Amino acid sequence: MIPRNPDFAQAVRASFDRQGAMSHLGTRLVRIEPGVCVLEQPFGPAVAQQQGLFHGGMIAAVADVAGGYAALSMAEAGQEALTVEYKINFLAPARGEILVATGQVVRAGRSLIITRIEVAVRAAGQEKPCATALQTIMPVAPFADRAPA
Amino acid sequence: MIPRNPDFAQAVRASFDRQGAMSHLGTRLVRIEPGVCVLEQPFGPAVAQQQGLFHGGMIAAVADVAGGYAALSMAEAGQEALTVEYKINFLAPARGEILVATGQVVRAGRSLIITRIEVAVRAAGQEKPCATALQTIMPVAPFADRAPA
Amino acid sequence: MIPRNPDFAQAVRASFDRQGAMSHLGTRLVRIEPGVCVLEQPFGPAVAQQQGLFHGGMIAAVADVAGGYAALSMAEAGQEALTVEYKINFLAPARGEILVATGQVVRAGRSLIITRIEVAVRAAGQEKPCATALQTIMPVAPFADRAPA
Amino acid sequence: MIPRNPDFAQAVRASFDRQGAMSHLGTRLVRIEPGVCVLEQPFGPAVAQQQGLFHGGMIAAVADVAGGYAALSMAEAGQEALTVEYKINFLAPARGEILVATGQVVRAGRSLIITRIEVAVRAAGQEKPCATALQTIMPVAPFADRAPA
Question: How many Å apart are CA D81 and CA D142, to the nearest integer?
């Protein structure tokens, strides 16, 4: 994967730092490479459901963001990554200390970028898959009040 | 739609009230009927992205919960609704005061319940569609540490 | 829904008639309106699985085409409708004489068109839902050797 | 992956041979292992669209079957694999001599099996990805007139 924007890592980090929802949840950007983004989400009340597991909605939100930044790493300088759609399958109850979401670009087109996201949960040093997703991203000009369509 | 559990509304409300993540976001359960659940989500920092719109991840989380409770209204007494998977398409930027997510059961089987969710955003008294989703729910015995599969 | 191409019905019919696979299966275009396309697929060996039901793959193929032409009715003159992705849920065994697939545009953007498709099976004069799908279409210039992305 | 049915390969081959639609298209089962199924589909009029590419609907049908048999290899003896739902992204125009669909089990539960399917097209000895899918399969007792839900 050859990035179109040589400063892709800086662009991703700058955008991530502006995401209020992510800083609110305590999500961490731990790896950004051309076509790959890894996020970690520590467990806590804001991402829990009633039985002490990670909440499905929060798993999906972190997966969506990991895929979006994997896509952004392959976009042109100055673009943003708009989620057109995604589909997520939950594989196992997500009980553990940290959620690890790995977004990977499957195809980087000019008008659409397709990504896959694998989510695992880390408990006592072991990682176990808990969700998998497939996502369509549209790279767009920033700050416009635009729809995904 | 004829509910299998005559106390379905009470079961849904009791489960919703136990959802820490929902009370954390300020989500409201405004309507529950056999096969239908409507949630409202007021705008605020916890559900915002950097440009003052509702965050896509939060839209998906509210949609997921609306579909899950629509499904739960058609489950048997004592069951919980486990999300197997869903797919969401974003239709327009979600700028407004309140998000309205309407979950509707499409087919209520014994082992799987299929739902559709429409999400609109209300601004200045007008509602505008912003997302649509299709979801597979598995009704299960509660409190078990079980996977969706 | 206001079509961008006043000759949308003719454009859809001309494209449909060029579809070798559809004429091979005996699929019929029975209705085309702005944002709506209805196809009918008679039962027969080419669309059957081993137990005498409509084959899931063929149900999905007809659904995909119904959604694609609903989208094409809202595209500009001279464009084609490329399927970016879709997701389909099967609701019931499809036993009957005719499959009826109704594609409807949910949002008609310039770069992407989102559609929903409902598939029913008609048996002894009664229609029963058997599948539902959600689809993303990209309107594109024709005859180019282009990818969806 | 440890199969529950020691005769899984025979079960898959017997089921595949009963599939009228597959023999009609000339689809070949080229590999079956625990959790993995590879199908090959030669190009021809029955799987073509108007521009000489593999038809999207046929790509999806072959993908669906590859995923279903990967799942069946992990089911119990005597079960069939019912497709609950799938989602497919098209990645590139499918021009070539042979379509190669590889289904892989992601999680093999007792009530649901989740699979991923990668589809490539082979042209002049080179394989190029053209579609990727995520699928939910329900293992069920055979020959019953049952719905996926």
Answer: 9
